[in-house]
Amino acid sequence: MVCGDALALGPGSLVSVLPDTHVGMAELRFHELGLDLRLVKAVADLGWEKPTLIQEKAIPLGMDGKDLLARARTGSGKTAAYAIPIIQGLLQDKMTLSEQAVRVLILVPTKELGHQVLQMVRQLTTYCARDIKIADISGQADISAQRPILMEKPDIVVGTPSRVLLHINQKTLCLRESLRALVIDEADLIFSFGFEEDLKNLLCQLPNIYQSYLMSATFNEEVKALKELVLHNPVILKLEESQLPDSSQLLQYHIRCEEEDKFLLLYTLLKLSLIRGKTIIFVNEVERSYRLKLFLEQFSIPSCVLNSELPVQSRCHIIAQFNQSCYDYIIASDEHVLGEKGKKRTGKKRKGKSEKGQDSEYGVSRGIDFHNVSTVINFDLPLSVDSYIHRAGRTARANNPGAALSFVASSELPMLQEIEEALGEGGSKGCVLRPYRFPTEDLEGFRYRCRVSCVWLRAV
Ligand SMILES: Nc1ncnc2c1ncn2[C@@H]1O[C@H](COP(=O)(O)OP(=O)(O)OP(=O)(O)O)[C@@H](O)[C@H]1O
User: Fold this and answer.
1) Segments of the chain assigned to CATH 3.40.50.300
2) ipTM above 0.95, yes or no
3) pLDDT single digits (tens) 233-273
4) Domain 4-239 adopts which CATH fold?
5) Which portions of the sequence form the region Disordered (predicted)?
6) Does ligand 1 come within 6 angstroms of the Cβ of 395?
7) Nearest atom, ligand 1, residue 52 CA
8) How would you class 344 by CB atoms within 10 Å of its CB: exposed for 0-12, middle for 13-18, buried for 19 or more?
9) Is residue 75 lining ligand 1, measured as CB closer than 6 Å?
10) Which of 21, 22, 26, 346 is the most exposed place for a label (fewest CB within 10 A)?
11) Is 139 in the pocket of ligand 1 (CB under 6 A)?
12) Distance of CA 296 to the CA centre of its chain
């Protein structure tokens, strides 16, 4: 690609619309895709029987050197869809090229995602870890600490656009000669996270020819703009599917509940074991996450809090602990990442920390693979449809079942309507948020105890 060229989708571009088959499991198995045996073995260790549909289509195209724009819903395995062909390509390169160099750049919008991509690539390279080195530079705050890591020229570098550009400008990272592939993960977020300027500057530092992957759960204006900037005659893989799994995999409910009763309602659901298993409870503000944690603690319900004010190491640690089942409940606040009412942040470069000490490169509802989440609760309804989709997408991932339950106050009814209309529009099967009904009549006792606790909490 030539820097600054706006490359339109050429006539040779292929748009492949794939049918929706549950999460989209493929016909082929991994060993039938012509992969290096070390990769096949690593995939087997992960317990993956077959590629998902997006993987089955993307892996051969990626191995063929095609530019790819892939849209598939949350949890459909997009990370491995680009990571596998990239690792395969690197293993092949290693047979002929002896010089160590950074050959792949994976751009992510958040530090959590950078950490997760690193983990996934490490798992996939278990049997070739000596041949393929990877570094995640999104997470570390101190740039000088990353210099020695980059001096070793890892084959794959993962980072946010701003951090990568910083290293390029400081000449601790040079991609102009060696880069063979660029990935933009969660492409729909890169611009809305304010990385547009950084990304454009960064693209000017890349060689003329390299393979590009754009991965996204949604196709929006940002993805279109990125496509023009980054891709050259791409193959477009677009799963013809609803944005969330259908009701056979993901149950979606809402409960009408005024603000003052939300705490009570959550306690009731948990105590009556109407919600079981690992649960992510989303709130719209950091302060509410602590308030809710405190409230649950009064009833000896342990939970942990995840928000942008925590240092990145703590956030990654909390996600890891949750995935290891140390906690059943995470209370996460995510809304600040979308800005006001879910509008995108334009142009301006984001600083590391906001005035309130919140990390701008934070995001838990986007792309993070929380394991085996049985329920997502929208304690506060999100402020945009996209945000609802990404929150709900933290459950029912891959082939697992899940439920999304939204507490809806009167003031949130217009948003509920917007979500239902948007999910219905795409022809989604069963994606309406059904009213939730309590299967018990004995709520009064809980109601009383909760009210007492709420009064106590307000008094604190
Ligand atoms: N072929 C497969 N078989 C079974 N599970 C898989 C397969 N591929 C990936 N997974 C699992 O599916 C989950 C979701 O994968 P991944 O995070 O890559 O999805 P995604 O499409 O990137 O989601 P998001 O859009 O939310 O980022 C992960 O736990 C991953 O380990």
Assistant:
1) 4-239, 250-459
2) yes
3) 899 998 766 778 888 889 998 888 888 889 988 988 888 88
4) Rossmann fold (3.40.50)
5) 341-361
6) no
7) 1
8) middle
9) yes
10) 346
11) no
12) 27
